[in-house]
Amino acid sequence: MNRAGLRLVLRHNALPLLAGVIFAAMFGLYLALQPNGIRTDVLVTASNKGVLLALIAAAQTLPVLTGGIDLSAGAIVVLCNCLASILVNGSGLQIALGVVGVLGGGLAAGVFNALAVVVGRLQPIIATLATSTMFYGVSLLLRPSPGGDVDDDFASRLTGAWYGIPVSLILLGAVLLLVWMPFRRSLTGRGIYAVGSAEASAYMSGVKVAPAKFAAYVGAGLLSGLAGLLLTLIAESAQASAIQAGDLTLNSIAAVVIGGTSLFGGVGGIVGSVLGAFILRTIGDLLFVLKASPLWQPLFQGLILLLAVSLGALPMLRIRNRLETYR
């Protein structure tokens, strides 16, 4: 890669790179202040919490890249959490079918959102706000009271460590390398970016706008379903909680913005959102080891989100046409 190419890559990935540096500094400080030292169980706990939010942030990134948003992401996670607490137990075959059923539930929820936004032509913020209430209602039907049962051995394997490496982190790496990277380079993936940057221009250029949007919401549902499965394996129970669904959705949006994905659409990616999610999770861990009051956590999260939004908006203040950001 020549100097001009490197400069272009750095320019387009400045915010994700900054998020990576911030996370490395924050997590390094957390490990240094950790009273129990750098142990496998400490890394596993941090990884499980971070990967859970990272998967939801990854799900949120896809609709945001098209210029939309998915306010039902947290509700889909809770729905699949309740579904997994019923299906993921029994024999090996039953567990495998249960996992497929949970992911299928997330996929179906994503298809429902896609139909509302793409076929029904509803505003994404309104459509997904409505569907989030519907998904929460289904969660209550599945799990009217907290509880459930998950195969302990299966849960411990996927939320434990493999040769000292957290398995959840390996799962996240597999999603990034085997799913996101090929998808981003596909016609549909490039179409999502084109639609988010300028939908009318993308349409006039021959980009299939409807399939790109449809794929974004379906992919968001599938990733949210995977996050719901992981949540069940971590907690080994389920609860139809509207508060938890709302918190997960808001945190996913915050992670997306912190990771450098523009809410205008067309700029960013899942890698940055993953780093943003780990930054958010590390804030709580740092406050804990610093023995700060938990009441400070929302304040710090809000300040970091405000700073990230401000940094992300700076390029837009200097240009008249958003397409100029791709020159």
Order of helices and strands: HHHHHHHEEHHHHHHH
Shape call: globular
- How much helix is in the residues? over 70%
Low-confidence stretches: 323-327
Instruction: Assign the CATH class.
Output: Mainly Alpha
CATH topology: ABC transporter involved in vitamin B12 uptake, BtuC
Alpha-carbon Rg, integer:
20 Å
Distance between the termini: 18 Å
How many domains, as an integer?
1
Number of strands: 2
Strand order of the largest sheet: 1-2
CATH 2nd-level architecture? Orthogonal Bundle
Structural class: mainly alpha
Strand percentage: under 5%
Round the mean pLDDT to the nearest integer and report it: 87
Tally of separate helices: 14
Q: How is the main sheet built?
A: 2 strands, antiparallel
Give an account of the 3D structure.
The structure is a single chain. This protein is an all-alpha fold and 327 residues long. It is 76% helix and 1% strand. It has 14 helices and two strands; from the N terminus they run αααααααββααααααα. Strand 1 and strand 2 (165-166) form a beta hairpin. 45% of the residues are buried.
Brief account:
This protein is mainly alpha-helical and 327 residues long. The chain contains 14 helices and two strands.
Topology summary:
Elements: H1 3-12, H2 14-33, H3 40-65, H4 73-87, H5 92-119, H6 124-142, H7 152-158, E1 161-162, E2 165-166, H8 167-185, H9 187-197, H10 199-204, H11 209-235, H12 242-258, H13 270-289, H14 296-317
Antiparallel strand pairs: 1-2
